[in-house]
Amino acid sequence: MDAERQRRGHGELEAEVLAALWAADEALTANQVLGALGSGLAYTTVVTALSRLHAKGVLSRVPVGRAYAYRPVTDEPGMAARRMRQVLESEVDRQVVLARFVSELSEHDEQVLRQLLGRADEH
Amino acid sequence: MSTDLYLDLAAALLLSLVAVPVSQRLSARVHPRRASRVLVAVALLAALASTGALTALAVAVVVGAVPLVPGGAACVVLVVLLGRLAVVAVDRGRALARCAKALRGSAVHGDLQVLAEERAFACAVPGRPGRVVVSSGMLRALDATGRRALLAHERAHLVGRHHRLVIAGDLAAAVNPLVSPLRAAIRYAVERSADEAAAEQVGDRRAVAHAVAKAALVGLGASWGSPVALGAATGPVPRRVKALLDTGPAPRAGIWAVLALLLLGLALALVTDAAVDLHEVTVQASSPLA
Fold first, then answer.
1. Which ipTM was obtained for this model?
2. Cβ contact (<8 Å) for B109 and A15?
């Protein structure tokens, strides 16, 4: 567990915690976040990350029983998202930000990918 | 002198033609991190060699050391190519500025910025500091390992300064269209490089392969920009997934590495040659008695 913690820096762990909270539909407690991260992290590590993110104003929290449930704070709803979408809709801009993890696929590519995913699942 | 200048130009063009397939073959046989650097080095040196030779010839025409016909064509071509260079440089600069502007004023948490948006997208925005921008839709589509892989992949782009490599390739191709095929090769190499970095960090190639495929498929509904030709040869994403799933021994680089080194040396010699030619032409022009 310690090795795992050392392998991920503070920032990386906080980014993962934040990403997990964004992926969730509701506010999550530290225990639920631990479950959502799905790897051998210590409970205290997750609590520390959540507290730090809350202190930075990135997360809001509500008491649930004896613990807190956290959710991401969304500021100026959708504004940055809309502007970024415009950027990504431009061919030149998309190339500069290397937005290729989400890449354009041909129909053939799609078929191949689904096959590869299916094969990966069988193993 | 005049024939020398034409021969240097011909050598630079021939070199560009040969260097493209050689560096492409080499890049498929070495670690993608190294591949991206080799490809950029080849593209830049080929561009320097051809532009150098062209400039020497054009200056020789201007100072009257080479007859206007057919030498004048070199001047025209040089002006056109430098114009292309300026257009690409301005385009890329503007694109970076637009990205920075789009994100201005919104909160960053460490290097991660999540945007509330159902459509799945993720990208690495260079700058100080660079940031990983991901939509909430993309995060929802992936599991915990997939999210780790995605963040590690985008972060690898920032840490490896992949934007610089991509832009360098674009600039090289602007002044030397013969190396244009290397632009796609560089893009592919930096994506593969980021995939490998993610695989190292997550410690599970199969999981990263899964995440790459998943992210591409959920991003499909987003359909940014113009669609790619349908039914074409297998595109870059399936190739990346296959490369991650493939655990066989890497093919040997051997002969291609030697050839690439030879070509890089030759390109360096041509660049030096062009510089010497340029110097001689200007010296001759400034001392008419010579």
1. 0.82
2. yes
